[in-house]
Design goal:
The protein is mainly β and about 450 residues long. Helix content is about 0%, strand content about 40%. The chain contains one helix and 37 strands. The protein has one helix at about 55-60; strands spanning about 5-15, 20-30, 35, 65-70, 75, 85-90, 90-100, 115, 130-135, 140, 145, 150-155, 160-165, 170, 175-180, 185-190, 190-195, 205-210, 215, 220, 225-235, 240, 245, 250-255, 260-265, 270, 275-280, 285-290, 290-295, 300, 305-310, 310-315, 325-330, 330-335, 340, 345-350, 355. A hairpin with a 5-residue loop joins strand 1 and strand 2 (about 20-30). About 45% of the residues are buried.
Length: about 450
């Protein structure tokens, strides 16, 4: 029997010697083998919150456990040596966001109880660690706020699968690569990349991958300005991003693919960004069920080939009336079931390149977004003040002509909100499937 963390309900059936059967219901509470870390207590042996390690390095050096629970506070890998680094060298789960008294991990509050790892060794920015966290084995890192270091925030290089979950990369200045992944399979789930200012210099991507497979799910990329790239693929790397939000970022290039890289982006929105999407890999890219709106100086430039389907590329600003949204340099680009303002007139096709633009299924219709501000004034969240729900500002109104005219087949099984299937006969075009909600806040 494999037990999950927390309460487990079990049913036991037994038969006696004469064939009589009986069952019993049991409730079993399970907690994984945990070592505790809390910077606010006197250094202990890690066996409980009251006897927690004060230093995360001590917990990483200990053995015979599978989980590290880290209480709120700021943690540094050293105090004087730039080579100081947190290193994961065996399968391990690190969870942050604890107040320091929990008996299970379900009650964590990652924002109220921020667990911050920083490479600012002296606390004044004068001495930085080269790398903050190095992952060299299968691991899960969950609920951690990643701070500054000189070169790498999290560096991953392992043949084992890694998950980075509910982590925040925010307000980082002049770091070379907050997340650098080599030769690994990594899941980046429900993470926030916000207000980072890495600069435009060569080699300053927010997420940089080389010969790795990275799956980015339900992540927010918000107001990162300036950065060289948001996403950069080198070698034979692959990025598959699903249900992500890209808002208010400004980069030399939002995304660049090179080498033999693959890029797939599904059910995501790009709102008010600056910087091109440069597809220069030898392998084609795909975008399905995406919404691009009011992006400035942003073109999809493709040499590798592209499949674009069930997506919106639109703008309402007067200074963008003559802007081209796509430049096809080489290979074949297929566009179907899309809504592109000015249609083919907004696409540049170089000699020798091939554009397959379906005049029957592609349209040029004002999207008719809800554009409702949240109670807190957020331009994305809509009436419920929660992002990635069906009343978001860039979801479609009930009256939108983009409803029910998308393709009957799709790459991604859900829209941005996680809604599966279609509301009518066919998909709606864009990242959101209309789900019968009101057009305005009630």
């Amino acid at each position: 029997v494999t037990l999950s963390e927390g309460q487990n309900s079990l049913s036991i059936r037994a038969t006696d010697a004469v064939g009589n059967e009986g069952t019993a219901a049991l409730t079993v509470y399970h907690r994984p083998n945990v070592v505790f870390v809390d910077s606010s207590v006197a250094n202990g042996n890690g066996s409980s919150w009251d006897s927690a390690y004060a230093d995360l390095q001590d917990a990483l050096a200990a053995q015979d456990y599978s989980h590290i629970w880290v209480a709120k506070g700021t943690y540094r890998p050293g105090s004087s040596d730039p080579a100081s680094c947190y290193r994961i060298t065996r399968p391990l789960t690190i969870l942050g966001g604890f107040a320091g008294n929990e008996t299970d991990s379900t009650g964590r509050d990652r924002e109220a109880n921020k667990t911050v790892l920083t490479g600012d060794l002296l606390g004044d920015g004068s001495l930085l660690s080269d790398t903050l966290l190095s992952i060299g084995a299968g691991a899960t890192v969950d609920g951690i706020h990643i701070g500054v270091s000189d070169y790498f925030g999290i560096y991953v290089n392992t043949s084992e699968e890694v998950t980075i979950e509910k982590c925040t990369f925010a307000n980082i200045v002049d770091m070379t690569r907050p997340l650098y992944i080599q030769n690994a399979v990594v899941n980046v789930n429900n993470c926030i990349f916000s207000n980072n200012k890495l600069g435009f210099e060569f080699g300053r991507p927010l997420i940089d991958i080389t010969d790795a497979a990275v799956y980015i799910n339900q992540c927010l990329f918000e107001k990162n300005d300036p950065v060289r790239y948001l996403l950069n693929i080198q070698g034979s790397g692959t990025i598959t991003a699903k249900r992500c939000v890209f808002y208010g970022n400004y980069a030399t290039k939002l995304i660049e693919t090179g080498g033999n890289g693959y890029l797939n982006i599904y059910s995501s929105i790009f709102i008010q960004n600056g910087g091109d999407i440069d597809l220069s890999s030898s392998n084609p890219a795909s975008f399905d069920r995406c919404t691009f709106y009011d992006n400035n100086l942003t073109k999809i430039i493709t040499q590798s080939g592209l499949s674009l389907s069930n997506s919106i590329i639109w703008w309402d600003r007067a200074d963008m009336q003559n802007e081209k949204v796509m430049e096809i340099i080489a290979n074949t680009t297929i566009i179907k079931n899309c809504n592109i303002r000015y249609g083919q007139d907004s696409i540049v096709v170089w000699t020798g390149a091939n554009l397959q633009y379906n005049e029957t299924t592609n349209v040029a219709i004002s999207p008719d977004f809800k554009k409702t501000l949240s109670p807190g004034g957020n331009p994305l969240k809509g009436c419920d003040d929660i992002l990635m729900t069906s009343d978001d500002a860039y979801s479609l109104k009930s009256t939108s002509q983009l409803r029910d005219i998308g393709g009957a087949t799709l790459y991604e099984e859900t829209d941005l909100t996680g809604f599966s299937g279609v509301w009518g006969t066919y998909l709606d075009i864009g990242a959101y499937e209309y789900q019968g909600e009101a057009d305005a806040c009630q």
